[in-house]
């Protein structure tokens, strides 16, 4: 049975973590935010190239959710074919320390995992 997320976060300690994960959780949102943090402005197809395992539908859904939460901004240029760019909003930029911390932890985890595998092989 699926767990229903809180609608308000005036509960016990840890609800703020849940609130944050509701915004950036999932397989792709963190990666999208990281790419927009490092590249600053990306078009839809540029994101697709940077995330080769994501489907077009999933990318569209994740971008819509991030935009709906105010973390990214979408700018449509009136030309044919349409040109759409995505960037972090000022609010989205406030996640920079969180995204950098996740990357640093991931780098250490991968490096530590490689060392553990190497030690086990010896």
UniProtKB/TrEMBL annotation:
Domain of life: Bacteria
Keywords assigned by UniProt, alphabetized: DNA-binding, Transcription, Transcription regulation
InterPro entries attached to this UniProt entry: HTH_HxlR, WH-like_DNA-bd_sf, WH_DNA-bd_sf
Protein name as catalogued: Winged helix-turn-helix transcriptional regulator
Pfam families in alphabetical order: HxlR (PF01638)
Organism: Azorhizophilus paspali (Azotobacter paspali)
Domain HTH hxlR-type: 15-114
PANTHER family reported for this sequence: TRANSCRIPTIONAL REGULATOR, TRANSCRIPTIONAL REGULATOR, MARR FAMILY
């Amino acid at each position: 049975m699926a767990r229903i997320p809180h609608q308000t976060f005036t509960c016990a300690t840890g609800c703020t973590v849940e609130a944050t994960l509701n915004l950036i959780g999932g397989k792709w949102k963190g990666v999208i935010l990281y790419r927009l943090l490092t590249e600053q402005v990306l078009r839809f197809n540029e994101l697709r190239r940077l995330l080769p395992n994501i489907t077009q539908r999933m990318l569209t859904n994740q971008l819509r959710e991030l935009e709906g939460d105010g973390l990214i901004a979408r700018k449509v240029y009136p030309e044919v074919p349409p040109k759409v760019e995505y960037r972090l909003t000022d609010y989205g930029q406030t996640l920079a320390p969180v995204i950098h911390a996740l990357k640093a932890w991931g780098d250490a985890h991968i490096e530590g995992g490689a060392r553990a595998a190497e030690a086990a092989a010896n």
